[in-house]
Design a protein that fits this description.
By secondary structure, the chain is α+β, with helices and mostly antiparallel strands. It contains 14 helices and 13 strands. Strands 1, 3, 4, 5, 6, 7, 8, 9, 10, 12 and 13 form an eleven-stranded mixed beta sheet that branches. The radius of gyration is 32 Å and the shape is elongated.
Length: about 450
């Protein structure tokens, strides 16, 4: 006797009831899968995008807003800060490295970030094509920016004021793409990087000198335009077949003591400390004795995950209730079906089926319902997560994929086995105890 075929035949006979039970289990399992994949990847993204940054220094306001705008680039900045004040804290004895961040413009919705040339190292980002910027108005694109905009090394583009996809274009001063970064699956993939002087030149925050400097570098850029194009496509000869050289000297740091800081501002300052003590003492010191605000990414991420975690826990509890309701529904369905099938089971016994076979037959029905529901839930959960990931990609937010497997998902499959066993146990025991003579006699 083939128990698999027999159990499947009984489930087909009760199509609507079986479909409802499978649907309830699938819905509860899918919610848990989405929460599991989204929460795990969200935490990974937040930690990875922090890039080892210990403190973000910016204008007074919400610490969480400062972190979201200065590191994750998904919120508006709290304001600008004076370069002189920022440089003071960048040279503090507890600070190992400091990187400026200047925001204000975007390209097709992707933020243009003015910073220093050591910023890509925070995310282990490497140049896939071209080179790093060596002058104002030169830009290096993240992998997603290049893919979405179609810009390549040698192309030019005008920044849009603000962070929306459309707005006032700075057509009078166009950026030139000199490099494209390899994908890192971090926040840098959706950024267009340039020197802080580029932002100053466009927004007038640096006065005449920086604008003149940017114009001078533009002239130098056009003189060597052919060499830069060859640097992007891998050829090293000009039209005259003469060897050329590209200046790889980085621009002087705007945080250097001799750099003129009067009248110049940046959006935020990213600090990396040389000791755990700095993460405790510097924020309180900066907040107390200066007009600036210091926020620790670790503290704000923990607070953010705590807020999100409450909602996720609530949804997980709701999904758990749905699975419990589905298990109860499976039990009721099998119990009621057993009462209607007592004669069938007695006939099976009279034809040679053992008590153990009847027990396994009912247990198998419960297992098929539970495993079918949870397996369908896993599939739906991964598909929904992938859809959310595509939406987040279009919205230029976190990286999320449904094509990932979390070890905790094995627990869902184990739960399906337990749910199937518990739901079918009592009906199976009753099937085991069927009295052939009394049942066939109609008692």
């Amino acid at each position: 006797m083939n128990l698999w075929r027999l159990s499947l035949a009984y489930l087909r006979h009760q199509k609507l009831t079986a479909a409802l039970n499978v649907f309830l289990l699938a819905l509860g399992s899918a919610i848990i899968v989405v929460l599991l994949l989204a929460s795990t990847q969200l935490k990974d993204n937040l930690v990875r995008d922090a890039g080892g940054i210990d403190l973000v220094v910016g204008a007074k306001g919400s610490p969480l807003q400062l972190i979201l705008s200065g590191i994750y680039h998904i919120d508006t900045p709290t304001g600008n800060i004076d370069l002189a004040e920022a440089r003071r804290w960048s040279r503090h004895r507890l600070v190992d490295r400091a990187m400026p961040v200047a925001l204000g413009d975007s390209v097709q919705g992707f933020r243009i970030v003015g910073t220093s040339d050591d910023f890509p190292a925070l995310y282990d980002a490497e140049i896939a094509n071209g080179r790093s910027w060596h002058a104002p108005m030169e830009a290096v694109l993240g992998a997603r920016v290049a893919a979405a905009t179609g810009l390549a090394v040698g192309d030019t583009f005008a920044g849009v004021h603000g962070f929306a996809a459309s707005g006032h274009n700075h057509e009078h001063a166009r950026y030139r793409v000199v490099g494209v970064l390899a994908p890192t699956r971090s926040v840098i993939d959706r950024l267009a990087l340039t020197d802080v002087r580029s932002v100053w030149a466009l927004h007038g925050a640096s006065g005449h000198d920086a604008a003149h400097e940017a114009g001078h570098d533009h002239e130098h850029e056009h003189e060597h335009e052919h060499e830069d194009d060859h640097a992007g496509d891998g050829h090293g000869a000009s039209h005259h077949n003469a060897p050329t050289a590209v200046d790889h000297t980085p621009l002087p740091s705007i945080l250097a003591p001799d750099f003129p800081a009067t009248g110049r501002q940046i959006t935020a300052l990213l600090l990396i400390s040389d000791s755990p003590l700095a993460g405790l003492t510097l924020p309180r010191l900066i907040n107390r004795v200066s007009s600036l605000q210091a926020a620790a990414p670790v503290a704000e991420i923990t607070r953010l995950l705590g807020l999100i975690g409450f909602g996720l826990d609530t949804l997980a509890a709701f999904a758990g209730l749905m699975i419990a309701a589905a298990a109860l529904s499976v039990f009721v369905a099998l119990y009621n079906a057993l009462r209607a099938r007592r004669v069938d089971l007695a006939m099976m016994r009279s034809l040679g089926a053992s008590r153990a076979q009847l027990l396994r037959h009912i247990l198998l029905e419960g297992q098929m319902l539970a495993m079918g529901g949870v397996t369908l839930g896993l599939l739906i959960g991964h598909l929904v997560t992938e859809g959310l990931g595509l939406w987040l990609q279009d919205a230029q937010l976190f990286h999320l994929t449904g094509w990932a497997w979390q070890p905790a998902e094995w627990g869902l499959l184990a739960m399906a086995v337990i749910v199937g066993l518990l739901a079918a146990l009592l009906p199976a025991i009753q099937a085991y105890r069927v009295d052939i003579a009394r049942t066939l006699a109609g008692e």
